[in-house]
Amino acid sequence: MAWRGASGNGVAFIGPIVFLGGLLLLITSILEFILGNTFPCVVFGTIGGFWFAFAATMIPSFNAAAPYSSTAKDTAAGLSSAGFLNTYAFLFITMAVLMLIFMICATRTNIVYTLIFLSLMIVFLLLSSAYWLLGEGSAATGDRCVKGAGASLFVASLLGFYLLIVQLFEALDFPFHLPVGDLGVLWTRTPHKGQKHDIEEGAAVGDN
């Protein structure tokens, strides 16, 4: 959102993006896989992979953006070129579709989880719009879309921190529980004869 003059398309956060975003989420995805939690495994793995890809695009040694510059060697110039922006926007569209799918699936868990994916879907839609607008030369409108995406990501981050606090309080057996808006009660499904009950579904309802 350009607070305190923040800029640079996230280049300053390459380190945190790789290790706090990509690596940490990938490890979390593997652990969720071991626990048999399919939905969190897919979510953390997908978003972790996105952060790895986003960081790699901005690292010069990967040579992802430099070919779009006039010299074919300038990563910074390539990141702001029309060809790169118009192409990279499709990644954000793909991520927006995934967030929509995750949001629908999250309606089996709780309101907070669902709102996180709604916010992230808006983030990616605004980023794709921003990149296409910037690629067309509409700098003012594109910048507003980027700031809107930042605001939506800020909301998603706050919701994520809230959900983290809820889970930590529960893990440490605090004498109270913060509300998350359990949506599991809205869904009723009787397994077919011979079909095993979905372990993750039961855990989601029980945990939230």
Automatic annotation (TrEMBL):
Main location: membrane
Transmembrane regions: 12-35, 42-62, 82-104, 111-134, 149-169
Origin superkingdom: Eukaryota
One GO CC term, this protein: plasma membrane
Keyword Transmembrane set for record: yes
Location in or out of the cell: Membrane
GO MF terms, alphabetically ordered: acetate transmembrane transporter activity
Pfam families: Gpr1_Fun34_YaaH (PF01184)
Membrane topology: Multi-pass membrane protein
Keyword entries, A-Z: Membrane, Transmembrane, Transmembrane helix
The keyword Membrane is annotated on this UniProt entry: yes
Protein family: Belongs to the acetate uptake transporter (AceTr) (TC 2.A.96) family.
Protein name: Uncharacterized protein
Provenance organism: Penicillium antarcticum
